[in-house]
Amino acid sequence: MRIRIAVVAAAVTVAVVAGAVAVTTDFGLGGPPALDVRWTSDTATSVGANHHAAVAGAVGGGEGLVFAPVSGAGGSDECRLVALDAATGERRWHDPIPPANCTLHSVADPALGDFDGDGEREVLAGSTTEELVAYDPTTGTVEARFPLDAYGYTRPAVADLAGDGTPEALVVDSGGTVFAFHAGADGPAWRRSLDGNAYAPPGAADFTGDGTDEFAVGLGTGRVVLFDAGGDVVWERVAFGGSVSWTATADVAGDDAAEFVIATTDGTVAALDGRTGEPVWTRALDEYAAVRAVADGDDDGHPEVYVTARDQRLRALDGATGDTDWTVELAAGDAQMTPPPAVGDVDGDGRLDVVAVTNGGTVVVVDAAEGHVTGTYERDTAVFAHPTVADTDGDGDDEVFVVYGDGVVVSVDGGGAEP
């Protein structure tokens, strides 16, 4: 562990500007405590640009596992999806990607979901083999393979769009083709081709307030499309000039229907009304804005949207208006990119925390209500993937898992209660 120390007089400066709290943090003398490492995985590869995030959870009756997509050098045998013990980091199983398909995008962000309706969640991941694969989470046994038109870059989703008790595995490949698959079927339930690449995670939720879920997709052209259970377009918008690169799904307007919150490469963050696709609010931030986490961090009954950008600032935005509640400077200056944060109770105090990572390798835990930094950890390796926060041991507190650019997964203790 290497903690950056600067000789400064104060660790935290707080300023109130136009009703928003801006918190600028210097990780210096008297600053927040260092977070402890729970474990470090043995999944290192020869490249430093791994940028797909893990998923974690309790599966198979309560077993805690972390599923990490690991990419390596082109043409090598380093690419694989790896299942790790969430308590120790020990490898449980892995599924290799053939060397001919091994690239930096070899395995997309995996998802956990019960796509076959048997009461147990499966692990689903797209890959450069141009297929969506469903695995038994405890053994790694392949339960289904669904062909795609191009490699799967984004995290898939599992939802029962029709509300008929038959869930769909939903995925968008890198070429912008949308698929809905049913377990046991020979082909897709429906397939729709869109004009544009897809790099942002899609969203499945009740966007229209009709009691059933729809499927939202954002594209590199700035286009956003909402599909119903049969694959028909509910609405579509050319939202903004930049590429839609990150998304979140939540009812931020308090109208009993979800909004699709998007972030674009030109720095736009917007909440799109789920019924119409029109913006509820729009913010212009720095380039490469990133959003994934929405939660009621201050327990006031209204959600906040937690956003980062290239300027390495973490912002809490009011979910209803988009106004800034507080800002934390995670690191000085601009970075290549800053992954979006995650939210959970990682220190066991019953309050939500925001977990953010910097491109430079620092993990920062922030009190979600006030924007105070409560702990940091730094590894001298780049991070391009968002952190994963999940309760993998069923104790009510969340654990933190970070995939570094070299393919190593690190689990840190969020502080407070014992891991």
UniProtKB/TrEMBL annotation:
What InterPro entries does the entry give? FAM234, Integrin_alpha_N, PQQ_b-propeller_rpt, PQQ_rpt_dom, WD40/YVTN_repeat-like_dom_sf
Quote the protein name from its UniProt record: PQQ-binding-like beta-propeller repeat protein
GO cellular component terms given for this protein: membrane
Q: What is its main location?
A: membrane
Q: Where does the record place it?
A: Membrane
Q: How does it sit in the membrane?
A: Single-pass membrane protein
Q: Where would I find the Pyrrolo-quinoline quinone repeat domain in this sequence?
A: 76-143, 221-413
Which PANTHER family does this entry report, sorted A to Z? IG-LIKE DOMAIN-CONTAINING PROTEIN (PTHR21419:SF30), PTHR21419
Q: Which SMART domains match?
A: PQQ
* Keywords of the record: Membrane, Transmembrane, Transmembrane helix
